[in-house]
Amino acid sequence: MTVYLDNNATTPVDSRVADEIMRLLVEEYGNAGSRTHEHGQYAQQVVNRSRAAIAQTLDAKDDEVVFTSGATEANNIALLGLAPEGQRLGRRHIVSTAIEHKAVLEPLQRLQDFGFEVDLIAPDVSGRVAAADVLAAVRPDTLLVSVMAANNETGVIQPIEDITAGLADHDAYFHVDAAQTYGKLTEPLRAKRIDLLSLSAHKVFGPKGVGALITRRRGYRRPPLTPLTVGGGQERGLRPGTLPVPLIAGFARACELAEQERADRLTACIDYRQRILEALAPLNPIIHGDQEYCLPHVLNMSLPGLDSEAVMVAWRGVLEVSNGSACTSASYEPSHVLSAMQLPKAQILGALRLSWSHLTPAADWSEAVARLGGLR
């Protein structure tokens, strides 16, 4: 049996979530925008309940939840949607980090093309940026600070709470890409100072194709976002288009289950991590990133003398792992995250990412280790 260890790319859909999605796909197929009949009204009720359920997990208001196709779209709306406000105010400076997902770095590059100035803060070898470095880069004309909650490649948790506190007296908007921590390490995401928060259902045992952007008010004022697409007026005009009601309901159900079962899931992931480390100890793995600040279900490592591509081929049929972000693995280039950490080239080229969950079955680690014996 092949064991899937790429949960940072996507998680399996919880069977209870799948049941809810299928019920709505087949039995309750109404359009939430059709309010003149019962099918449409029921669909709208499902969306309203789902919005409220997700908002509750983040201590947000229902109408601060904007449904999107996932965290990538949420990031784009948050970053590019603020550009007209920055241009209007003459605030064209943005602070982010060199280890962000491409779904943040590429919109930032586009903003640079529009004349914005972007400072990318580098991490140290721990894989963690220093909150002091982020805050020191903030200027009076800074429009936005964008820092991920945890890195998708290393699992290293970033100092969101310290940055939140340091921005208390600044007008800059604060955006957090929380795709990797929502439903797992949710407490820091509840801070009211986080203006914009990107979420994705398929990272939390929900369906692909749906996510959300949390747009928290300051007082009575919403973040001044300009929509990237128009037509239809759904989601307060910020993200038009027919709402995928079954996916939205599945997302909400996945969020509720994550909150209810968080403690048990955490324990299972910690136990699984220990079994991996014990099994791979004979290979002398080099662990990348500060493990004190690492998500319990992620391990980024290199095996001395072994190339990551060769290891993945050798493990075929036993383990499914990755060597970087799923969004860039089709045309593999050395990890920009590990490069920003200034790791030795051999470690970067040998890097493997293992990510599991409470649903991951036991693996045949003795077979996995044995298969690497002839590669050195």
Task: Summarize this entry quickly.
With 376 residues, this protein is α/β, with parallel strands linked by helices.
DSSP helical segment count:
13
Q: Tell me the fraction of residues in β-strands, as a range.
A: 5-15%
Percent range of helical residues: 25-40%
Average pLDDT number: 93
Q: Measured on Cα atoms, how large is the radius of gyration?
A: 21 Å
Description:
The protein has 376 residues and is an alpha/beta fold. It is 36% helix and 13% strand. It contains 13 helices and twelve strands. The chain has helices at residues 15-26, 38-57, 71-81, 83-89, 102-113, 131-136, 160-166, 245-260, 262-280, 308-314, 336-340, 345-349, 365-371, and strands at residues 3-4, 65-68, 93-97, 117-121, 142-146, 173-177, 196-200, 211-215, 286-287, 298-302, 319-320, 351-355. The chain has a seven-stranded mixed β-sheet with strand order 2-8-7-6-5-3-4, with helices on both faces. Strand 5, helix 7 (160-166) and strand 6 (173-177) form a beta-alpha-beta unit. Helix 2 runs parallel beside helix 8 and helix 3 (71-81) runs parallel beside helix 5. The longest helix has 20 residues, at 38-57.
List its salient traits.
Aspartate Aminotransferase, domain 2, three-stranded antiparallel sheet, seven-stranded mixed sheet, 2 domains, 13 helices, 376 residues, globular, 36% helix
Topology:
Blueprint: E1 3-4, H1 15-26, H2 38-57, E2 65-68, H3 71-81, H4 83-89, E3 93-97, H5 102-113, E4 117-121, H6 131-136, E5 142-146, H7 160-166, E6 173-177, E7 196-200, E8 211-215, H8 245-260, H9 262-280, E9 286-287, E10 298-302, H10 308-314, E11 319-320, H11 336-340, H12 345-349, E12 351-355, H13 365-371
Parallel strand pairs: 1-11, 3-4, 3-5, 5-6, 6-7
Antiparallel strand pairs: 2-8, 7-8, 9-10, 10-12
